[in-house]
Amino acid sequence: MSADVDILLEEALSQKPLRLALLRRLLAWTRPYRSTFLLSIAGTALAVTSQIFGPKLIQLGIDRYLTHITTSAAANRGIFIISAIYLGNLLLNWGVTVAQVRAVVRVGQGMMNDMRLAVFQHIQRLSLSYFDKTHQGRIISRADYDIDAMEQVLTWGANQLLASALTLTGVLFMMLRTNLRLCLAVSLVLPPLAVATYLFQKYIMQAHRQVRRQSSRLTASLAENISGVRVVQAMGREDENLENYQDLNMVLTRRAYDAARIFHTYMPSLNLVSGVGIAIVLGYGGELLQRHEITVGDLAAFILYVQMFFGPVQTMGDLYNNILSAAASAERIFQLLDTKPQVIDRPGARALAPIKGRVRFDGVSFRYETTPENRWILDEVDFLAEAGQTVALVGHTGSGKTSIISLLARFYEPQLGRILIDDQDVSQTTIASLHRQLGIVTQENFLFTGTIFENLRFGRPEASADEVREAAKAVGTDEMIGQMKDGYATKVGERGGNLSAGERQLICITRALVARPRILILDEATSAVDTKSEALIQAALEILLEDRTTFVIAHRLSTIRKASLILVLHEGRIVERGTHESLITAGGVYAGLHEEFSRHR
Length: 601
Ligand SMILES: Nc1ncnc2c1ncn2[C@@H]1O[C@H](COP(=O)(O)OP(=O)(O)OP(=O)(O)O)[C@@H](O)[C@H]1O
Ligand SMILES: [Mg+2]
Hints:
By secondary structure, the chain is an alpha/beta fold.
């Protein structure tokens, strides 16, 4: 577990150089918000301009009027006007900033919303082979962490960067215009400032990484303890686990302390440097004043400009790192979005017409992407299931039963051979039209957060309450559901956590029936229910499946015995086929399996 956490974290903390193509692609996402985006940029420019204008007004006020204030009524009026303009400028700055921030947030949130949807939609379309080889946590961190990281930078980063760059340029311009020599004198503080900023960036970055890495470990430990709390309590591991957690926690505290120390050393240092800058202005500026090279107003404005200079320097340093991390996040999101589903509708694929349910496998050979080249998971599988027949797939664990079903549902595509439904090659039909006529109860019977009723209608949302009830009655789940707290309105916890394994399975079977599929697939569907329920389901299925092609995979013989066709699989090959009686008489693999099963009952 912790190895996974570390891999994910390294990925999340990785930085890559910024590429132009990436920027262009990111910008494309702002297209729907282009006018708001441009407005926010214009707003930033205006806000910065008005801010830089402030000290200039003060200079004017001092030089033109303040120095004459006692002697002239005109000066009094003048200073009043300047104050009014200054106030007006402040209000303008406030208004523009508020509007600009809103625009930025709107663009940023809109883009993130679009991106989250795109990622979700794409994940749903990806073929199962992608999930076979990609860690779940990794996919989730795309939709969650990576999008958040990008949001931070896109929302604020672009504007802060612009604002800082404009401020620095503007301030520099004003300082140069005021007095070149004073400017050169103040620039003495730049080398120490550059060194301090560089060092700070380097160390704070490392410190933040350490904090994140450690806090992820702590979270992972907590999560493991919550999901494994039963085992922890049953085995009396509370003290050991607490100690373990305590150790991780201590390290985190130390790392957080380190980061805070670095940060809180840098900030006062920045003040120190800007203070030195101001001291230089005062000292050297005083001399220039004596020589009448500058005015008092110039000096005052200059001090204000020096103070304005340092904020953006620090912001730009912070931003640089954040932008690099966000770029790495963006790369990973685009990589996910660029992953092509492997099973897709062929060009010219036709919708599968309403089918009768005749299924034929014709020389089908298949291996998963991760299967070694020299091995077939399914090896030249041939069979024919007539419409309405019940076909049982039997074989040891790993013999390929579920794989056959996965191919029929087109979760994967075979490397060789064809699969035909009613004589139509499924690889030439659209996936959606196939899935509409297929019902599957899998080994992992998954329920979604919501009510039982909602879950039952999952495959056919337009099914009426009566239809749902009818299906439940047929399978014998109506009574069981009736006994639950709120009947059909009972809430199902995450993944059906508040139901027993057998109840979950029964509900999944009902769910498949509500969808009224032409072909029904039950993969170990009755493994978790008791013999009584199984008999019940069996009886119901016999009625319900009369005109439906059904594939059943079960280790229990009672489910298999009545099948019209039994296919016995061994290492991916069909080694025997026939009815229960004929196979018993033949005395082969099936007869052996049968004996094994009977002994274990
Ligand atoms: N997603 C996958 N990726 C790679 N290999 C897989 C995958 N699923 C199954 N396999 C391999 O394919 C073989 C057949 O698996 P399959 O799930 O079809 O067996 P099964 O007959 O359904 O077994 P069981 O009775 O245990 O459910 C096994 O060797 C298994 O390891
Ligand atoms: Mg299986």
